[in-house]
């Protein structure tokens, strides 16, 4: 009998085996190698995944599942362990230099990171962690080793997949390396359960990575409905942000990189103004976010594009903002524009809708789940700026379209609360623990 099962038996000899089989984990080791839950989303490699991990961990703690998040230390200023909130610890692991390490350089640091995770575990009593939940392929590799070493189940969330990204590359974007494809394939085979954001992602895991369909569970990410809500409405938000009350405001919010395609919005606005110069005095296009990924090579690229297109006067660039202020940007916008080439879920689309703002998005990845076409926003096939310009013209010509769709969007978003997501994730943990016990038993049988 494995150490894991015998420990369970020893700890709860009085518990009927039926109850013991269905228990939830008490403590989960959550791995997020390349991005810390303490980082500002919209900067560097920090984005929706950071928000996902913070919110999920806090809601799991609220249902009595303690979470310890392991992440790579990127500054000496932070202590090795930070309590994010009751029941949620963030452990900073030294692996490679603090500054200037690109995501592409991180595979070389996985050994050092794994060593740090093992050291933290060695300082605990046996059986400290009941389960490992890794996020993104880099963490999956560490999670695979840790789960094996500790005799516990591995639950993995891809967030994005190399094969899917490579099939939907933006012009001039760099394909994901073969090493990542191989790594992801190994993790899919090793995990006890895989969490997909949408049914489409679940099908992609099966199709591209030969995942066992029985191991894949679909859990929609949530949205913080307390923070992202219509609040005091569009006029007040515009006043706070110094935006004109009667303007058409198509907003881009996110990391500035080819994958997210902010250039499609700029080209669409240029096309719209070519055809409708009368709209120029009443359009403002905020771009809120910082360069990331392959966008770091040309951080001023988008500003130069705006100037080349002759729309520098209507585009306003803003560095990334905190979640509270982001909610205000959403409320102030007429429409959030998400023209991404690939998007596993599009958390930003749900956040904007929760704040009462419709979304104009590319019909890719999880966006058709996040946005109800024609009701809470508009989905566009492909990335032709002219197609986006046509939709923006409709928003300009029908002032009631934005509030009408926005009200439907806010209602739609209420079904994406984090409590629902945390409950569903806890169910996946329970199933992973059962599957793992069965596998250990059959292995030793």
From TrEMBL:
EC number(s) from the headed UniProt entry: 2.4.1.250
Molecular function GO labels:
D-inositol-3-phosphate glycosyltransferase activity
The entry's UDP-N-acetyl-alpha-D-glucosamine-binding residues are 40-41, 48, 255, 260, 321, 343, 351
Q: Which UniProt keywords apply?
A: Glycosyltransferase, Magnesium, Metal-binding, Transferase
Q: Which residues form the Glycosyltransferase subfamily 4-like N-terminal domain?
A: 47-222
InterPro entries per record = Glyco_trans_1, Glyco_trans_4-like_N, Mycothiol_biosynthesis_MshA
Q: Domain of life here?
A: Bacteria
Name the enzyme group at the top EC level: transferase
Catalytic activity line of the entry = 1D-myo-inositol 3-phosphate + UDP-N-acetyl-alpha-D-glucosamine = 1D-myo-inositol 2-acetamido-2-deoxy-alpha-D-glucopyranoside 3-phosphate + UDP + H(+)
Tell me the function of this protein: Catalyzes the transfer of a N-acetyl-glucosamine moiety to 1D-myo-inositol 3-phosphate to produce 1D-myo-inositol 2-acetamido-2-deoxy-glucopyranoside 3-phosphate in the mycothiol biosynthesis pathway.
Family per record: Belongs to the glycosyltransferase group 1 family. MshA subfamily.
Per its record, how is this protein called by name?
D-inositol-3-phosphate glycosyltransferase
| Native organism | Streptomyces actuosus
The gene name reads mshA
